[in-house]
Amino acid sequence: MLDLFITGADQSSGKIFVTAGLTATMQSLGYSTGVYKPVEAGAVKINGFVQSHDLAFIKFVDPYIKTYYSYLLKERYTPLLAAAAEHMVIDKDVILKDFQKIQDVNECLVVDGVSGLATPFGKNFLEEDMIKMLDLPLLMVVCACSPVNSVLLSLNHAKEKELNFRGVILSNYPDNTVNANIRMMPRLIEEYTDIKVLGILPVFEKNLNPNDLITEVLNGVDIEAVFEVRIAKLQL
Description:
By secondary structure, the protein is α/β, with parallel strands linked by helices. It is built from nine helices and eleven strands.
């Protein structure tokens, strides 16, 4: 099994493009792929049905990717507050059982988190606790234009929590930037956290061509390092 937990460093990380791009790429390489979204806050109505906007985008990129969720919450609040608004409690045992049911269904399974390891889901249940509970390697998506200090704080916090850190993908990286903070971000991350930058991706629009997204991922991300697997098709 090629399992992975993806989170964002913050709300502007561009995580959904990375999740969709990685999973669509793995599907195109011949791996049966699924995405599990434990909690979606800010669910939207599409074609008369309440759906996860993130999972709907993944289906837009590749309709053959299997998608799963445990909680769909209407309010676009932090999950704890969104659940409280509907008089619900997010149960960690429900998430664990749902994950275990689908863990062996797909060759590649990505769990799509929220944006921030300290995001609260319930009492004594933060996103970092969910990652440990599911026992998954972590990939963090960082917006290239984020403040350097907040990025380093987030990454070093994850190391202190002894999470199984697979690496970082930088998103929203502008072409030919002259901004020193952006240009130096990959080097600063690796020098000050010892965490590898496994890919750099440009700015994407929601109405992108799915094939363009896959192409950018293949060209800009070390897929084999992300999933820790040798992929025969990439050796051709």
